[in-house]
Design a protein that fits this description.
The structure is a single chain. By secondary structure, the chain is α/β, with parallel strands linked by helices. It has a single domain, classed as SPOUT methyltransferase, trefoil knot domain (Alpha/beta knot). It contains five helices and seven strands; from the N terminus they run E-H-E-H-E-H-E-E-E-H-E-H. A seven-stranded parallel sheet has the order 3-2-1-6-4-7-5, sandwiched between helices. Helix 2 links the parallel strand 2 and strand 3. The longest helix is centred in the last third of the chain and has 16 residues. The radius of gyration is 14 Å and the shape is globular. The protein starts with 5 loop residues before the first strand and ends with a helix.
Length: 155
């Protein structure tokens, strides 16, 4: 399987979540994780607790400004997909990527989510259907669900 898809983490405050996302990204052969805003970066003991060595296998880079990252990825023909509940969100099960399409998934802050400025620059806004009362789940769990769904659709 060719590494082509990218994860963008914007203002993820939990180092444990970042580590878990590295570990899940390794499982799905993610090309790179781009950390933005207040995200912690490897090497970091707290990230390593949950990454369990995945930071050695998944490329990563840090950029302060996510909007510049999105602009550059669009120049490289990436489809930008924000994972967020919003008025323009479509259900994950209804999103059908092309087999060889290069995708960049944006995951936002655990409390505030993804900013409206990032959503407006995204090609799609996708949400995971939720049926409980809280209508919220941990960002690292969201990453796993989205990557599994996209893996099944692209392979």
């Amino acid at each position: 399987m060719i590494k082509k898809n990218i994860i963008i983490l914007d203002n993820i405050r939990s180092l444990n979540n970042i580590g878990s996302i590295f570990r899940t990204s390794d499982s799905f052969n993610i090309k790179k994780i781009i950390l933005c805003g207040i995200c912690g970066t490897p090497p970091n003991r707290e990230i390593n607790k949950t990454a369990l060595g995945a930071t050695d296998f998944v490329k990563w880079e840090y950029h302060k400004d996510i909007l510049n990252v999105i602009k550059e990825l669009k120049k490289l023909n990436y489809t930008i997909i924000s994972i967020e509940q919003s008025k323009k969100s479509i259900d994950l099960k209804n999103y059908k990527p092309e087999k060889n399409e290069k995708l960049a998934f944006v995951f936002g802050n655990e409390v505030k989510g993804i900013s409206s400025s990032v959503i407006s620059k995204s090609d799609y806004c996708i949400e995971i259907p939720q049926y409980g009362k809280k209508k919220s789940m941990n960002v690292s769990i969201c990453v796993g669900i989205v990557l599994w769904d996209i893996f099944l659709k692209q392979n």
